[in-house]
């Protein structure tokens, strides 16, 4: 590895706090809470897309077409995520991590609140679904900039031997936000169906404004990343981070994305499509299904925590490979459990998918992506990998699975086979990526 003398001199003076220090606890809390609030809003939309939007914004359509349209608006948000990662990553690499995180949080809170206030199509016609799509794009841009910055603020403050664990706080924030979003929808879903569709579903969206205010108070107190502050490589200042990522690290982007798609394929299938499938086709109780989903998200947090801790000991690759191989083996059995139409089998399927498989892959994923790129382009590179993974893995999955089920005549075996193929590809991609646990993050080249 080649080092810049300026970086070498600066990194000698870095103030890297212990994970038990008050400063580091505040940083980790900011990473976790900020990510949780952003993903509360993003997953709240996904849950509503499964249960509400096809009945409120896509009326006068066949049920299967309406749910497909609802899932299409979900995909639009995922399409915007890589762009958000690029834009916010650019400014995060040029100006610093902290400012862009505050901007992304405000964007998300405002967009979600307006979604909660949108009139239905029955009142304002096509304006409603068009506005919904626009606001979903804003959500996608905002969450596209959130994860990379939240993860890097924790990772770049942490001591080398605890980077995986520190970075996982942003990863734990995602499923924690999913728990909050799911429980919020579950609470209002106990209303009579006409009231739930008329105004009940709006309450969790409007409440996000208060959560964002809390997150901003915490985030404003966090100091800038020491690795970013130490970066004094003037020769790179005028270069565009995205161009450096794509020209100098194309393999890192491609392999990292293929690995990350595995986790997000599970998320797209089990937390969006499967919810709609078991409620609409399986006739399961909506509130019970949402409560099971919340428990599954909580299990994701637990497994993220465990996997991240082990990745600091034995490496990112072996820990993530356990989750990838488990996903390939369990794909068809999980789909069989869904098709049986029993709520207890649905619970087991969801717990295996979101706990064991997604949690183990996702736990080290923050450190895994960060260690693929040097500091000067790390925000852009890590965000691009993460957001491409989520867009390709989760953004289109509900629509693709819906099509595969129709193609299979109602059977889920085609969907299960597609799931397994994604995981086999991820395993092959992982084999071509070097272990980054002991990488020097202050190095000019990695």
Give an account of the 3D structure:
There is one protein chain. Helix 13 runs parallel beside helix 15. The protein has 446 residues and is mainly α. The chain is built from 20 helices and no strands. 80% of the residues lie in helices and 0% in strands. The longest helix is centred in the N-terminal third of the chain and has 33 residues. It starts with a helix and ends in a 15-residue tail after the last helix. It has a single domain, classed as MFS general substrate transporter like domains (Growth Hormone, Chain: A), CATH 1.20.1250.20. The N terminus is likely disordered.
Task: Describe this protein with a few key phrases.
446 residues, mainly alpha, Growth Hormone, Chain: A, 20 helices, 0% strand, disordered N terminus, membrane, MFS_dom
Q: What is the level 1 CATH name? A: Mainly Alpha
What is the chains' assembly state?
Answer: single chain
Which geometry do the CA atoms define? globular
Number of domains in the coordinates?
Answer: 1
Organism: Paeniglutamicibacter kerguelensis
InterPro entries: MFS, MFS_dom, MFS_trans_sf, Sugar_transporter_CS
Membrane topology: Multi-pass membrane protein
Transmembrane segments: 27-53, 65-88, 100-118, 124-144, 165-187, 199-218, 253-276, 288-307, 319-338, 344-373, 385-406, 412-430
